[in-house]
Structure formats: structure tokens, C-alpha cells
């Protein structure tokens, strides 16, 4: 790292859990972020600030006025612009040393494998079940770890799905999508804006831990649930489900338990 990088990342480097080696891993990492909305906005800001080497940002939406209550990567002047291009400009201003590849597309069965391949970690902040199941199935097939979060109103949840290392996949925990209308979207149910910042930042923190191999407690095999209204955080143990329609037959690469980082 050059002197400017040493200065920029000094607070990481002095952490014994990250150090120079961990920061180098962050610099070499390639991550894909699905969704540039409430979760993706703070997530991408902190990934770029942390010095993640490459971010592929996938979203087909445009910035609207109602986004600005929680999607802090955008400004009022960005309204009407493609989210991935507006986000790319903000991230370039924050850290020009990070490569951001904007992909203004919706993930489909036809393009998901091509778009998500070649990444060390996929982070899913999408806002619909169809995309979540597609991202999960693609990551299982690619043997790529998936960090996924979701939120509504005052509550969010997050876990690291990685069957290749013995952890469950998303479909193990949520084998079927809820019936239409059972789970309202944010425009129908509402969401407190700062919750997106909390959950997106938590995703970034877990990504930094995982990529830098910082140790500590991993979210592989665990789910964190945060209740912002009551200021409570709970952790649940989750396991692979026998006969899962997505990851059954995908045996772990080793017999060791899921890694802690």
C-alpha cells in the first residue's frame, strides 16, 4: 500500500484482527451487491470506505423522491437517474481506489450465473422474494457465500448462507415464499429510515470480517434479528434442512464446521 492508503486505512490496520494482511485481503476482494436500495445504499458506502477492491452493483431501478428517506447514497439531484450510476458516482467521490461496476439490469434465470460468478462474496439487499430465491440458488450452484438481509417497519434480519462450508442456504430456512399479500412491501407497511442504515452497516461489518478473516463469531449457521423499536438484538441458530430443494446434494467441501470468518 502507498502512503495515502496507509493513512486512509490506518484505523483498520491497527486492529489486530485486520492488520495489514486483512486490509490487503479487502483490497483484493471482489463482491457483488444485489440491490442499490435501503440496504445497498449504506452497505456500498461502508464497503467502499473499507477499501473493498471491486464492487459489482446490480439494480435496474431509478432514484425516486421516496427513496431519499433511507437510501443515503443518493441526493435530491439524483432523482430520475439509474440507481447504479448515481451510486457509482457517490462511491467514486468517496474512494476512487475502489472499482465499481454498475449493472443496470434485473437478475433473471438467464443472467444470474454470469453476473454473480467470479466474486468472493455476494450480498443480497433485494426487496422481493423472487430475487432472493434466485440469488440463493445461483450462489449455491457457484459455491459462493451469500450474506443476505431483509427488513420491514422496525425490524431486520441477516444471515450468512454457505452450504459449501456446512451452513444452510436461504431455502433451508425459508423453503417457500409467503403467499401473495401476506408480507407487505415497504411502500405498504412503511419502514423507519434509520433501520436501513443499521442493517446495511451490519452487512458491511460482517462482509469486512469475512473477507479480512478477522475471526469472531460468524453468521454462518446463525441469524441475527434486530428490533429497532425495542432496541433488542436476538441470535438464532439455523441449520441445513434435509431434503432442501436447493442445496441438497451439495456436500460441504470439508467435514469441518462453518468457518468463523
Give a quick summary of the entry.
It is built from 10 helices and 8 strands.
Keywords:
10 helices, alpha/beta, 261 residues
Shape descriptor reads globular
Instruction: Count the E strands.
Output: 8
Distance between the termini: 23 Å
Mean pLDDT: 93
Number of helices, where a helix is a run of at least 4 consecutive DSSP H or I residues:
10
Helices and strands, in order, run as: HHHEHEHEHEHEEHHHEE
Rg over CA atoms, rounded to whole Å, is 18 Å
Structural class: alpha/beta
pLDDT < 50 runs, ≥5 residues: 255-261
Kindly state the percentage of residues in helix: 25-40%
Strand order of the largest sheet: 3-2-1-4-5-6-7-8
Share of residues in strands = 15-25%
**Main β-sheet description:** 8 strands, mixed
How would you describe what is shown here?
It is a single chain. Helices cover 34% and strands 17% of the residues. With 261 residues, the chain is of the alpha/beta class. It has an eight-stranded mixed sheet, sandwiched between helices. The chain starts with a helix and ends in a 24-residue tail after the last strand.
